[in-house]
């Protein structure tokens, strides 16, 4: 691949020098008189005139949208910030046609004409890559700026040593995702996104592929995270297909990471509504917005479906959707800047007349202002040190690993030339009936800061594992009749076995108690109180027997005066069974044998 690129460059150089032998002299003579030989410095902006398809231009960058931004930036650098002299920068626009062949060729032609000191733009990532790879070999190096190429592969500073990215990298979104899923303890995910290459398209990978691939790479560094993936081409996929794909996804996890165009996202959410996934509260969809970062407050509405049931269904479905998008600045300076740019677009370039629609600002367009400002700051420092402003390696070194105040606030560039971007986490607020920011991620501090309450369909975040699935097949509500009969019979048997066991144990215990040799009657217990009662009973019985055996003793005249024989022996007469108290001198047992 490298050999091909080098060969391609040499062919272009040879062709340009052959067809335009005086181009070097013409470029040198084009500098306006009265200026320092160092000025003007040429910035080549490579963008398409037409927006083209979202596959190649997902951020809708065009020359018509960029021109008023560059005008305002150049004016502020000279008049407001006084970083460079007036007209020190010259902006040249080339139509790249969103082609990975035409785009690099247009820039190489400018280099051959010695009229390129910096390159900005290149909306199509596959057109940017060869330019960023070759620019290190042009003269003393030509710095390259992009506001759209956030793929991980372009972070390789061995192959792209002069590339500065004003919107950072998709890895920032991955760090935001890690913070979010850790907060809700989610560990299972399903990637569901658009990628035209799934059907063998020659247009390359989509931005959704690059963004979710960055998330996947960070997830792979987490030991307990499990993920699955499903790709589709939104060019050929319809709602019926989304329904089938969501049915399969619903059996794998409850957390679906979604990426597609706004219209496709709406179709997917309507499919989720039909399945009940968006209404059950068991599922949540996290939408990665890689379109324009425009923060549509009511993305479910379509003008051609005003007051239609589809809009109401989509609104209900969007309650299960959270969106991650680039954060918009709310500074008054940014709002004034946006108004100036729109005014310039209409008055100088007749934007609405030419395009038939109103000028719309987004983060990827406004970032060109910060790109020009950063370049001017580095040039100012280089000139102050008496160094060559056309040394791209030196200029790039002064732009990296620094912070400056841009149109959106503080802009921090890391040591790898990537901006620390901030992202918003948006949620549908039922009270306001629109999407609002509930949390934002600061790339510079690597912190997720919550600013409002999340809104969940069931009032709480779902689990990450499916409980029932979209059709409740994982938790069936009923069983065949014989299942209930078997269950009832089993329960009856268990109850009877339990009753028998209790009865058996009770009978066994009673038999053991009956067989105990130490068991005695209560009245046989020897105690002071019981002995006293027993003595009273014995005395009473003795008096009754004595009265019966000696009836004459009841007569006071015949009663014996002796009291010395109450302690006499006891005699029992056979056949009578009486226990008598007697005195040996006077008592004679009846004519029965002694016992």
UniProtKB/TrEMBL annotation:
Main subcellular localisation: membrane
GO MF terms, alphabetically ordered: peptide hormone binding; signaling receptor activity
GO terms classed as biological process: signal transduction
UniProt-listed InterPro entries: ANF_lig-bd_rcpt, ANP_Clearance_Receptor, ANPR/GUC, Peripla_BP_I
Coiled-coil positions: none
Domain of life: Eukaryota
Keyword Signal: yes
Protein's cellular compartments: Membrane
PANTHER family named among the record's database cross-references: NATRIURETIC PEPTIDE RECEPTOR 3-RELATED, RECEPTOR LIGAND BINDING REGION DOMAIN-CONTAINING PROTEIN
Protein name: Receptor ligand binding region domain-containing protein
Annotated source species: Steinernema carpocapsae (Entomopathogenic nematode)
């Amino acid at each position: 691949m490298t050999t091909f690129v080098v060969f391609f460059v040499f062919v272009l150089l040879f062709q340009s020098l052959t067809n335009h032998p005086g181009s070097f002299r013409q470029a040198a003579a084009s500098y306006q008189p009265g200026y320092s030989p160092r000025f003007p410095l040429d910035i080549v902006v490579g963008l398409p005139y037409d927006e083209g398809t979202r596959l190649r231009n997902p951020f809708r960058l065009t020359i018509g949208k960029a021109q008023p931004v560059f005008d305002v930036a150049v004016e502020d650098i000279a008049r407001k910030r006084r970083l460079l002299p007036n007209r020190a920068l010259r902006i040249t626009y080339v139509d790249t046609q969103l082609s990975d062949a035409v785009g690099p060729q247009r820039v190489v032609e400018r280099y051959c004409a010695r009229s390129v000191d910096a390159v900005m733009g290149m909306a199509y990532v596959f057109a940017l890559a060869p330019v960023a790879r070759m620019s290190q070999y042009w003269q003393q190096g030509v710095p390259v700026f992009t506001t759209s190429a956030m793929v991980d592969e372009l972070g390789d500073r061995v192959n792209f040593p002069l590339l500065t990215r004003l919107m950072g990298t998709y890895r920032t979104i991955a760090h935001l995702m890690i913070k979010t899923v850790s907060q809700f303890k989610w560990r299972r995910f399903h990637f569901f996104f658009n990628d035209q290459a799934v059907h063998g398209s020659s247009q390359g990978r989509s931005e959704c592929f690059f963004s979710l691939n960055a998330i996947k790479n960070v997830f792979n560094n987490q030991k307990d995270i499990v993920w699955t993936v499903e790709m589709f081409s939104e060019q050929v996929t319809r709602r019926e297909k989304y329904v089938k794909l969501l049915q399969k996804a619903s059996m794998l996890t409850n957390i679906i990471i979604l990426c597609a165009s706004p219209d496709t996202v709406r179709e997917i959410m309507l499919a989720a509504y039909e399945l009940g996934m968006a209404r059950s509260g068991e599922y949540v969809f996290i939408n990665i917005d890689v379109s324009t970062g425009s923060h549509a407050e009511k993305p479910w509405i379509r003008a051609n479906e005003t007051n239609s049931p589809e809009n109401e269904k989509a609104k209900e479905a969007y309650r299960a959707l959270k969106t991650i998008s680039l954060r918009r600045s709310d500074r008054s300076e940014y709002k004034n800047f946006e108004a100036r740019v729109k005014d310039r677009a209409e008055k100088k370039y007749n934007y609405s007349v030419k395009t038939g629609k109103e000028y719309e600002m987004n983060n990827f367009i406004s970032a060109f202002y910060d790109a020009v400002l950063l370049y001017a700051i580095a040039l100012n420092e280089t000139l102050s040190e008496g160094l060559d402003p056309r040394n791209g390696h030196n200029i790039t070194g002064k732009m990296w690993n620094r912070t400056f105040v841009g149109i959106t606030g503080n802009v921090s560039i890391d040591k790898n030339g990537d901006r620390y971007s901030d992202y918003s986490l948006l949620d549908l607020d039922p009270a306001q009936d629109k999407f609002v920011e509930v949390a934002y991620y600061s790339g510079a501090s690597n912190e997720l800061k919550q600013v409002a309450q999340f809104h969940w369909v069931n009032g709480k975040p779902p689990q990450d594992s499916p409980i029932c699935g979209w059709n409740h097949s994982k938790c069936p509500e009923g069983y065949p009749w014989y299942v209930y009969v078997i269950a009832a019979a089993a329960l009856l048997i268990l109850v009877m076995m339990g009753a028998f066991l209790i009865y058996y144990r009770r009978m066994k215990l009673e038999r053991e108690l009956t067989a105990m040799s130490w068991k005695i009657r209560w009245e046989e217990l020897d105690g002071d109180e019981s002995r006293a009662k027993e003595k009273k009973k014995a005395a009473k019985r003795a008096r009754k027997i004595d009265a019966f055996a000696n009836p004459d003793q009841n007569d006071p005249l015949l009663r014996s005066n002796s009291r010395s024989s109450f302690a006499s022996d006891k005699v029992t007469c056979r056949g009578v069974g009486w226990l008598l108290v007697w005195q040996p001198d006077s008592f004679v047992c009846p004519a029965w044998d002694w016992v």
